[in-house]
Amino acid sequence: MDSHKAHLASSKFKDLPEELRPRERLMRTGNPQELSNEDLLAIILKTGFPGCDVWELSHRLLTAFHSLHELVRSDARTIEARIAEYNNKRPDRPILRVGSVKLLELQAAFELTRRANLILDSEFRSKNLKSSSAAFSVFSGIVAAAPEQEHFYVLPADSDFHPLCNPIAITKGTASRTIVHPRDVFREAIRWNAHSIIVAHNHPCGDPTPSEEDIQITKDLIEVAKLHSIPLLDHLVLGAPESADGKGYISIRNLAVLKF
Questions:
Q1: Running DSSP on this structure, what letter comes out for residue 163?
Q2: Please, which contacts does 104-113 make with residues 24 or more away whose CB atoms are closer than 8 Å?
Q3: pLDDT in tens, 201-248
Q4: How many CB atoms lie within 10 A of CB 185?
Q5: What is the predicted pLDDT for the residue at 160?
Q6: Which domains occur in the chain, in start order?
Q7: Please, are residues 114 and 142 in contact by the beta-carbon 8 Å criterion?
């Protein structure tokens, strides 16, 4: 359990500082990737019940389903049945007051997720990551969100250079730099059985010009990629649409300062 989850688990939700509450954190950062599954589910559920705040309710609901994927693909009857099964096993920590309204809201949110996955399969999966412009379109939402801190992402690709999933956030740094270790990048690549990967990180200042450290990180990743036989296709530095390059990003591969 990370420090944020531990703080939530050990504190009364109503007594938490606003910056740790899921809804307020999302409003402040504008970046849902920084929130845990419990945080996001808590925003949908809105309220808990006496003795169980909404974050704890979210945690229990996810525990009942063992995985987020299993919860999201469930209909209302399945959710009700799984809650009853969980309550029989855990009467000391029950899931209560997930009534018809909350079930409808969950169903609506999950259906949007399923429909989005269909779009992901037909449009997102068709993008060829060997093209820096196509690769940037996958990361463009990060630029639009304009995060105040640097984030480093990896995007696993299949043998046809199509994305296997959405960009995965590896690390979060400061307003001017982020620290990433190749093992964290390739852990995700191996987990997704990637044929190749592309990485990206943002410059909150808006200028995508790579720093010397960005070039060195790329060089290190290229070397580790050879060891794992998982080629690094590119490293995109994300800036802002109005940045000097006019595109909102710079491809380190296209700079031709390193041999990919």
A1: B
A2: 104/76, 105/44, 105/45, 106/44, 106/45, 106/76, 106/79, 107/75, 107/76, 109/44, 110/71, 110/72, 110/73, 110/74, 113/72
A3: 998 888 899 999 999 999 999 999 999 999 999 999 998 765 545 578
A4: 27
A5: 92
A6: 3-122 (no CATH), 127-255 (3.40.140.10)
A7: no
Among 73, 157, 57, 60, residue whose Cα is nearest residue 111: 73
**pTM for this prediction:** 0.56
Each residue of 67-77: pLDDT tens digit? 787 888 888 88
For position 3, what pLDDT does the model report? 47
CA atoms within 13 A on the CB side of 88: 6
> Is 112 exposed, middle or buried, given 0-12, 13-18 or 19+ CB atoms closer than 10 A?
exposed
Q: CA-to-CA distance for 195 and 164, rounded, in angstroms? A: 10
Residue in the structure block whose two tokens are 């690769």: 135
Distance CA(73)–CA(124), nearest Å, equals 20
Question: Residue 63: its pLDDT value, please?
Answer: 94
- Two tokens, residue 18: 């606003």
Compute the 3-state secondary structure of the chain and give helix, strand, coil in percent, each to the nearest 5.
50, 10, 35
Query: For residue 81, what pLDDT is reported?
Result: 92
